[in-house]
Amino acid sequence: MTVRFSLRRLLALVRKEGAQILRDPSTFLIAFVLPMILLFLFGYAVSLDSSRTRIGVVLQDSSAPALRLAQAYQTSRYFEVSMARTIQPMREKMVSGDLRAIIVIPPDFGEGVKQGRAPSIQIIADGSQPNTANFAAAYGEGVRAQWAAAEGLERNPGASEPPVGLSSRFWYNPELKSRYFLVPGSIANVMTMIGTLLTALVVAREWERGTMEAMMATPISMAEFIASKVIPYYLLALASMALCTVIGVFVFGVPFRGSVFALFVVGSAFLMPALGLGLFISSATKNQFVASQIALLSAFLPTFLLSGFIYEISSMPWPIQALTYLVPARYLIPSLQSVFLAGDQWALLLPNIGIMLGFGMVFFLLSFRVTRRSLD
Fold it and tell me: Are strands 101-105 and 122-125 parallel, antiparallel or unpaired?
């Protein structure tokens, strides 16, 4: 017998699901406490900024220009400098990991300055950490170039001025703070965790507690049953997203240049595949432990590793890049970063929203079929 959809029954089921959420403290722990922990970890503990890199400056020349260059390194906000007259103690510190680079100012440095040129310096970097080594080498040379410009020196005095000047400018994140894209990315991880992990437990919990038989005995339609499981966690995920946004803006100082409406639309679009996947896993497994493990492997880890949150997708091997197109968070993270840092860029947002809604439709169709089959 076909049961017609009833809004009254749906509201009753939603109230019943809401009462279960209120009686389960672990739900609020996952929905609000754990997201704040993740947010503070990514906001404070995790940083991709290579600031205050520990370096050693070997000053083999006592001339005034050499001392001024050494002082330029000491006053740079990018370095934490240790001074020495010979390279041997600095070499030992680099081997032990106390230093990441060594700047050697040679003995003939002052003589070269007297001749009107900027003599070369030696930069030795620890290649065991390539990113830090590249940073130390680039900024070490940058400090030297700024010092040479301030001293009025040229590497080749007879060379003419270049016909084209280069002026670098960074849009949306001028200070290149990693926190500005880590915090929006962590919101994506929070929404994945709430949308998929919590929803992956709802149907399995009904089977384990033996209440599914009572649900099957009631005259409810499958659409009412699925909607009653999704709506409370949709509202819970939106509340958690709002809390994380407030913390990100007012605690971490991340700019919010978009609109609340755009944030709501992007978040709602992503919750469709997240909730659909969680419901599909829960209906297919009927076991909370198995469902939670599958949810972590199929949703949380791909969001963390394959969405561009930490690792740049363009730097991945092409088979992995192709795999990332199947991760819904790949389309959420650039959308969140755009809303936070650039504003309501609908030309970017709308295609991503459409793809996420497409994923959601597929997962909900799968969960509808699996749940109906299990209830028959």
Answer: antiparallel
